[in-house]
Structures are given as C-alpha cells and as structure tokens.
Amino acid sequence: MVVSSLKLQDLIEEIRGAKTQAQEREVIQKECAHIRASFRDGDPLHRHRQLAKLLYVHMLGYPAHFGQMECLKLIASPRFTDKRVGYLGAMLLLDERQDAHLLITNSIKNDLSQGIQAVQGLALCTLSTVGSAEMCRDLATEVEKLLLQPGSYVRKKAVLTAVHMIRKVPELSNIFLPPCAQLLHERHHGILLGTITLITELCERSPAALKHFRKVVPQLVQILQTLVTTGYSVEHSISGVSDPFLQVQILRLLRILGRNHEESSEIMNDLLAQVATNTDTSRNAGNAVLFETVLTIMDIRSAAGLRVLAVNILGRFLLNNDKNIRYVALTSLLRMVQSDHSAVQRHRPTVVECLREPDASLSRRALELSLALVNSSNVRAMTQELQSFLESCLPDLRADCASGILLAAERFAPTKRWHIDTILRVLTTAGTHVRDDAVANLTQLIGGAQELHAYSVRRLYSALAEDISQQPLVQVAAWCIGEYGDLLLEGGCEETEPLQVEEEKVLALLEKVLQSHMSLPATRGYALTALMKLSTRLRGDNNLSLPCHILELKGRLPSHSHATLWPSRIRQVVSIYGSCLDVELQQRAVEYNTLFRKYDHMSQSLPPVVDCSQGGSQPSSLTANQPQCASPRKSERHPDPPCAQGSAWS
C-alpha cells in the first residue's frame, strides 16, 4: 500500500515555511521516508512525482543518492512524463564516477532512434551532460546521423552533443568531419553557432581536421563579411552590433586556422581590417568583437600595417572608462611588446598614466608593461616615472617595482654614476623590498668605478645619516664607509655639495647602527667590519677627545670618561661584541680583537692592497669582493689569502 505523502508544491511551501534549520531537516527527513517507502512499493504511476520531490531535496543539499535507480526506471518507461523527469534526475544525480550511468546507454540509444524530437532532445541533453568516454564511443554513430536530420531542434542539440564527445574522445573527430562542411550552409543561428564551435574543437585537437578545414576559410570569411555589412538577423543583434556571439566564434576559429599559415592569413587580412574599422566601440558588444579581432591579428601572419592597427585599437581601449577593458588592453599589449615593440612604444604615456590607477590589478599590469617598455633610449624618463610610482604604490607592488627598476638600470644604464644614483634612490625609498642580491650588486658596482668612490661614499653617508631603517641601504653604506672612509674625510669631491665630516661623526653613526633595534645581525656585522677597517684607514689627532656612547651604555666606561684616541675607542666597541649572543657577531669580534692584540704593530707598515680585478697593475682601494689585508676575516675554519674572494661583510 502506498504511503500518502505531500505533493511537490505543498512540500516546497512547507520547507519554505520552516522557521529553523531543525524544522526544515525534520520536514525533509519525514518526506524522504515517504519517498523511500513509495520506491519500495514500486508504484509506477507516482514514481515521477516522488522523484521530482527528491530532486528538489537534492537541490537543497540533502542526500538523494537512493533515487538513482529510479531514474533508470523512468528513462526506460514509454511515457514522456516519466522520461522527462527520469532524464532530469539522471543529469542531476548521475556522473561519470558512478558505474550506474552506464546502464542508461541502451535507453539513450533507443530514444535517439525513435524519431520523436522531444525525446531525442532529452536524450541528447543527458548525453552531453553525463556522457563518459565509453558512452561517447558507443553513441557517436547515432549522434552523427542526427546532425543531418531535417529538424533544426534536434540538429542544434546534436551539434552541441558532438562538441562534448570531441572533448571527451578526440579520436572521434573523423566521424564528424563530413557533416560539418554541410552545416556551414545553415541559416539557423543556433546550428551555425554550434557548428563553428564544433569545428573549433576539432581543429584544436586534430592536426588532420585543422588541415581539412583550412579549405573552408573563404566560406568563413564570407559569413563574417555578411554579418558585418548586412547583418544576420535582428533578434540576434545587441546594441547595434550584428550577432556579436557568432562574430566572436568565427574570429576565434579564423585565428586557429590562420596561425602559421600564410595563405589563410592572406585571405583574412582585408576582412579583419574591415571589422576593426567598422565596429562600433561605444558598446560592450562592439568592444568584445574588436578585442577578438585584435587577438586574431596578433596570432596569424598578418600584414605590418594591420598589426599597427591592432595596437592602436588597444591604445583606445586604455582610454576607456571600463576597468575590465583597460585590463585586457594592458594584458594584450604586454603580449605584443616583444614582437611589435615600436608600435607599443607609441602608447607609453597612456600606459604610464595607468600606473596611477587605484585598482591593484590594473596598476600591477601597467607596471609589468611599463618595465617591458624600458630601453636604452627612454631609460632615464621611464626610471623617473617608475621611481615616482615606487614612492606611492601599494606595499604588494613595491617588491616587483623595485626589482624591475634595478634590472632595467643594470641592462640600460647610460653611465655608472646614473646607475649608482638609481640604486641608491631605490634603496632609500623601498630598501626592505629589494632582492637579496641588491647589496652585493651595488658594492660590486661601486668597487669597480674607482672615479666614483668619493662621490659614492659621500652620498651613502648622507643617506645613512638621514635614515637607518632601510637595512640594505645601511649595509651598503657601512661597507662603503669602511672601504673609502678616508675619502669621506678628505672632502675633495667636486660632484657633491661641500660636506664637512669628522671622525667623531663617522664613528658615532656606525655606533648608532650597532645600537639600533632595527638593525639586523647582518647589518651589525657590516658596521662592525667597517669600524675594524677604519682603524687602519684613518689616522686621528692624538689630542682629540671623543665620547664613547656605546661604552657608557654597556657600562664599560663611566659617563665622564673619554678615549683619547679613536682607535682605542674602536677596540673597545669591538670587544663588547665578544660576548654577543649572535654567534657570527661574536666570532667576528673575537677575531678582530685577536688582530688588535697580536698584529696591531703591522698596521702602520702594510703596503696598499693590489686590485686583483685589474691584473695587479696599480694599487687601489678595496673593491666589492676583496677584503683588506689589514682587516681580513680570518679564522681557523675559513682561512683566506689576502686577495681571495671575501665575504659579504668584508
């Protein structure tokens, strides 16, 4: 006996009337029990009603797997009302991961052969939704027959089912090649659009199909030209653009057919120029057609003038108020910058303006394109724009912007001084966001430019005196002061403003770096090594009295005590770090203290260090990769010869 249950409409009203989730679950559990009982009793007249309620429950997210076999029974039923609900249930409850979906293969095959369009449509929809590779192989012949049926309703669904089959089983492409050529003569919009999509799938997955359909390029060009000039049908026009969906699909297919094929590309050139110049850009539909036209021009072997036209279209997109259009324009220009660099360069001012966009995705894409546009002729102007952007950009973009500026300066720097100034400005603005090798690259650059040693040390000293929070900048400045501290005190640099620097200020600044809580252990290592180098590079006044702030803080000297010689002050500072918790700093301090105790008498008589990078032809100050012989990093574990490769702190 069939258990009475609610009708579908009553079930929906009762579920919607539930005030709490618990009440909703109670209603659904009760009704699912009635549905299970009905399925067990095998009531054939009300099975489709029970399954319809179960499908609604499934749509709400509750389990409904127990209705899968009922779907198969309804599909096998001769009544259309049963088949309609059964096929709908199969599309919702079955998928390729379950073996039960294979049981409906025979039912679909029988329904495709019946000749009833409504039933054939249901079977084709189900096959295109849950059809597995096995089902596609078994039913490909039946679908191929339906492609040439007289009814447009079935043919349209058969074309879409064929697209699904090709995606599942690409080797079935040979079956669908012959009907496609005939379907291109269709006037029905849905069939023609589906056929273009089917040919696109075939060409993407089969080289033989690609070669076969290159013969129909003139026909495709004629269809698109008719769309552009006379239109297809009024009901498919959008905002004055004739059937933009069909235009986009044809352009996409032409792009595939014309790629790396000179003859096909030649046939398309005139049409693409016509589409690019006659399409209305005031509406989104026209912009979509234009964008697809640009992509086609970029991919095929188009004429040079046509590529310039495509770049100009993208340039107009950059002026559009729609952010999405500007984004796709920037992305497309970034793809074209390698092949058409001069054409993209014409829109450089507009691209630079996009850097100021508040939208992060737009500014990031504009940054990537701006960096790609930098060359030897515009490096000064572009770097200035990028540095201005670096000062105000979002934190997420600073690392990419700083790295891009450093790479551009390394590739296209007109002079070494400009290169050094650029890196210093980046380090000053966004030092914490630069790459790890920025410090080593700058020290190597400064060390190799002997004529700029005095200029560099004075610039770095001034920058360090203003800000010690940018750790890469502090590290480079400490290294440079240690290497060229004597040039800093001489004050003979004509390229900078007069700067009076005394030994006390230099030592106080390095001590400030050592004391700062912002200094990393590596930064303290640079400062400690710089102090060690200054002990041999500078010779102070023996009567000079200097306060030792760091010694007072550590309790080594009373507040009223003074060191009469700054070399002894350096020794005291170095000795403090002999008990540092950081093992690397402690090792450095111990090694330097040993050099002070045992070899201090040799520091006055050491000859100048020979620059190994110049073949030993002339003495010079230390370069970025050469530690000074008077203050090398020596230890029992890592002995280094005087002119060997030094560490980062040396």
TrEMBL record:
It comes from the Eukaryota. One of its GO terms (cellular component) is AP-1 adaptor complex. The keyword Membrane applies. GO terms for biological process: intracellular protein transport; vesicle-mediated transport. Residues 609-650 are annotated as: Disordered. Residues 24-599 form the Clathrin/coatomer adaptor adaptin-like N-terminal domain. It is found in: Cytoplasmic vesicle membrane; Endomembrane system; Golgi apparatus. Keywords: Cytoplasmic vesicle, Golgi apparatus, Membrane, Protein transport, Transport. It is a peripheral membrane protein. The keyword Ligase does not apply. Its main location: membrane. Residues 614-629 have a biased composition (Polar residues). Belongs to the adaptor complexes large subunit family. This is AP-1 complex subunit gamma. It comes from Zalophus californianus.
